[in-house]
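[job 4471] stage=fold_predict status=RUNNING
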Amino acid sequence: MRRRTGACVVALLAVLSACGGGGSSDEAGDERTGTDAEAGASGEAIKLGYSAWPGWFPLAVAEKQGLFEKAGVKVELVYFADYLSSLDAMAAGKLDGNTQTLNDTLVSVSAGRNQQVVVVNDNSAGNDAIIVDKSIQKIADLKGKSVAAEQGVVDHFLLLQGLTQAGLSEKDIDFRGLATDAAAAAFASGQFDAVGVFAPFTVEALKRPGSHVLFDSADFPGSIPDFVVFDQDVVSQRRDDIQKIVDVWYETLDWIAENPDEARAIMAEKAGLDVESYEGLEKGTRIFSAEEALEAFMAKEAPVGLLAMAEQINKFLLDTGLAKKPAPLDDLLEPSFTSDYLKRNGG
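[job 4471] inference complete, writing structure tokens
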């Protein structure tokens, strides 16, 4: 899911503007003005960003199969090879919506962005990982070692969770902030002792002889859920279109279930992997059904309940310095679209 750079996260928190954005395969466009937003409310294509993560590649299937058009909604999908650039574009108003993790969404909201979760895509169940060389056998062995990860976002978050569990902090390691694809390649060539990466970049990191996964997101269940997030103004102004987008997400999952080989080929191509390699990543991402997504929206207890998880992660982000103030949570979750889908489809 999700490649990022630390300098950009600092810029996001400080000035709420994009800091590069050059990693996307499509241009996200200029910042939307009030006039642009009014045009969007009357039928302009909704601009939705997504990036390299198994839980978000179904959007490539939806695009390939023309499912948005069949549903009668105008959607411009903007694919980012660089996840951080998608966060920057969303923060700068260049996207109407984006695919994001919970912790990255909380950082954006804490910095003043009005974002709402309308689709719960998945939980990372192993596809975010801390990968180490053969000299490291337990988390305590990371002390004094060089560890590369993209600063301020999800695999940095995972690293800090593991360190905290072992009674360590970032001060106990030689942390190197590096974009995820570059970090994976550098670790594979022997430049660092450990690396934090997400699929599909885990495949590259594990090419290093003797490398292995020290811990991954499966060790912290529920802590890395992934979403489709929209600007709250877009949600309020274009509810019918947002409903159609949510419907298409679940229709896409149905199509994938009915056409697994064709769907896997589409997603593997988007990931830049062969089909066999992509298939090996599937078990590390737990895609949610509509029923499971609604349960996550409504449940009160962690790790199932998203609001409870957000409260826990809010505190963690503050304690570790990844956020400057807690994100307000009152309007973070919008379950009505998933609920409406289920009512119309026998759920």
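[job 4471] summary: Confidence is low (pLDDT under 50) at residues 3-42.
[job 4471] exit 0
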